[in-house]
Amino acid sequence: xxxxxxxxxxxxxxxxxxxxxxxxxxxxxxxxxxxxxxxxxxxxxxxxxxxxxxxxxxxxxxxxxxxxxxxxxxxxxxxxxxxxxxxxxxxxxxxxxxxxxxxxxxxxxxxxxxxxxxxxxxxxxxxxxx
Length: 130
Fold this sequence. Notes:
Elements lengths: L1 E3 L5 E3 L6 E2 L4 E5 L4 E12 L2 E12 L4 E6 L11 E7 L6 E7 L2 E6 L11 E9 L2
Antiparallel strand pairs: 1-2, 3-5, 4-7, 5-6, 6-11, 7-10, 8-9, 8-11, 9-10
């Protein structure tokens, strides 16, 4: 993909490599017993970080509330940045994530929890950095 600005400057996003990271997963309340990290990749373009993460919750344990994912080492700046996704195994529900400070917080479309044993969660988005 090429982006061309008003000054005719061109940025070729295909030549910026995706970098993998290993996020940690937790919940608002209780404890997630186990997850399988399917993939977690990001690329930094100037002051923007594009990311894509996929996880399967193999055992939800006593977890409740939002799914907390640690972002890559490039920490988000500011509040109220959002990403979108989908539960891809059991329900197909639309998901959204609030991205800020040192957190990617994932909710179902109705603000309820996306956490359940067997659920697959995929989130893609971008955020600003300092």
